[in-house]
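User: Predict the structure for this protein chain, please.
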Amino acid sequence: MKRTNMFRIAAGIFCFLSLFGCKNSPKDETSFKSIHVTEQVHLTADTLSPACSMSIDLNYAEGDDSVSHHINAEIVRAAFGYEALSPKTAVDSFVAHYTRDYTHDLLPCYKEDKEEEKASMGWYNYYYNLKTDTRKGKEGIINYIIEMNSYEGGAHGNQVNTYLNFYTETGRLVTLDNLFVPGYESPLNEILLKSLMKQAEATSMEALQEKGYLLWSGMYPSKNFLLKDDGMEFLYNTYEIAPYVVGVTVLKIPYGDLTDLLKK
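Assistant: Here is the predicted structure, written as C-alpha cells:
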C-alpha cells in the first residue's frame, strides 16, 4: 500500500513538473501555408481580346493563436492594403476588385479603339503577379518577402518588393524604432550613404548623383529591411532613391557597423 502511494506521489510530481516545463518552453516555430490563385479576364466575350492575367502566391501563418493572427494581419495589410480580413478573403477580394476595375476602366476605350481599327492595342493586356517567401532570419525573427510585378499600360511594368520581419514569440512586426536607440537616423544615414557609395563605386556625392542616385532625395533608412543572420539588408524600390533604369537597390550592413546604434 505504501509502495502504491509512493508511485502516485511520484507520478503527481512528474505531471506537475511536466506542466511547469511546458509553460516555460519556447513557442513552437510558426508554420506557413500557401494560397495560390490564378485568374484571367478578357475585356470582351471574345477570347482573342486583351486580357488581365493575375497570379498570386501568398504565404500565411497557419494556426488560430495570437502569433498567427498578428502575422497574418500585417501580411494582408502589406500585400493588399486591407484591414481585418483573413488571408483567403483578402486574396479573393483583391482579385475580384482588380479584374472588375480592369474591365470597367478599359472596356470603353478598347471599344472605341477597335472601331477606329487602331494598330497598337497591346497595352490593353494587363498582368499582376504577386509571390511571397518566408525565411528564417536572425535568431528570434521571421523574414517575410513580398515581390509584386505588374503592367497597367505605359512604357514598362512596375516592380515593388516589400520586406517584413516578425518576432517569433509574439508575431508582432519589427520596426526601426524597435531596433535602434533614439536619434539613430542621422548616424544610420551616414552608414547607408557610405555603403551606397561603395556599392556604386562613387567617391563623391557628385559622382553618386551622376550615376542617378539621390537626385530628388537625401539618404534615409528604408522601412523595407530584413534582419538576417549576418546583418541588416535595406531595400529601396525603383524611384525611391534612383530612376527606373537603375532598378532596385539593396544595401547590406553588417551588425558590427551598427553596434553603437542598436538597442542592447
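The chain has two domains: 32-167, 176-258.
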